[in-house]
Amino acid sequence: MNSARxxxxxxxxxxxxxxxxxxxxxxxxxxxxxxxxxxxxLWNIYLMLINAGLDVLLRWLFYISVLTWCYNHQFxxxxxxxxxxxxxxxxxxxxxxxxxxxxxxxRIFWAVHVTHHSSEEFNLSTGFRSSALQPAYRFIxxxxxxxxxxxxxxxxxxxxxxxxxxxxxxxxxxxKMPRWxxxxxxxPSHHRVHHASNIIYLDKNMGMCLIVWDKIFGSFQEELKExxxxxxxxxxxxxxxxxxxxxxxxxxNISTDLRKKTTFATKLKYLFMPPGWSHxxxxxxSAQLRKELK
Length: 294
Hints:
60% of the residues lie in helices and 0% in strands. It has helices at residues 2-30, 38-72, 81-105, 107-117, 139-147, 152-168, 179-184, 188-194, 212-217, 245-258, 264-272, 286-293.
C-alpha cells in the first residue's frame, strides 16, 4: 500500500510540475521578464537527474534498510492517525531545517549544497536544481524519526510532500502572501531571500515549509524593498559549463586550502568551519561580512 501511494504521488506530481513550470516559462517570456534561460534550465534538469539517480541507488541501501533498523528499535509510537501524520510533518520539517542549517554552516556539507545556489536565475525549475550528492547523508537526519516509531515509507512519503511545497516557493511571480501566512509558512518572498547573494541575506530563511524555525533560531530575514535580491553565489563558479565542476568546484577549493602550509588543526577548520572562513583573513564568512556592513 505504501509503495502504491508513492507511485500515485509520482504519477500525479510529474504532470503537475510540467504544467506549472511550463505556464511560468510561457508567462515570463510573454511578459519579457527573462526569468528563464535554456542553459540554466538544462543545468537544473541535469542536477536533478544526478540527485534522483543517486537517491534511487541509495534508497534501499541506506534509507529503507537503515530506517527500518531504527524503526524496529523504536522507543515511541503514536496511535492516533491524525496525530501521527501531523507530528511526522512537524518533526520532518524541523529535521530539514537543521540539515539545511548544517549545509550552510559547515563547509564540507556546503560543498554538496552549493550547487542548489549556483544559479543566477530564480524560477520554479530552480527548485529542481538539486544538491546532487545530498542523498548520501540526508537519511542521517531522518533516523530519529524512525526511532520514534514513524514508518520508513511514511517518512519518505512525507519528505516527497514537503519537497513539493519547497519547489513551489521558487518563484518571482508571488510578491507577498497574507501576513498570517508569512508569519508561519515559508513564502516565495522568504525563499528569494534564501537564494540571494546580498550580504544581508546570506544564510537566512532555511525552512522548508515552516518559517517559524528560522524565527525561533535566529536565521530569519525579511525581504526588503530597499535591498533587491541578487541571485547566485557571492563568487560565481569558474568554468560553470563543465558538468563535473558545477558539482565538485567547492571540493576543489577545499583541496586548494588544505594544501596551504598550516597546522593540522587549521586544516580541520577549512573542512568544518563555515564557508568563507580563512586563517589569514583572505576570505570571510557571511557573519564576518555582515559585521563589516554595520
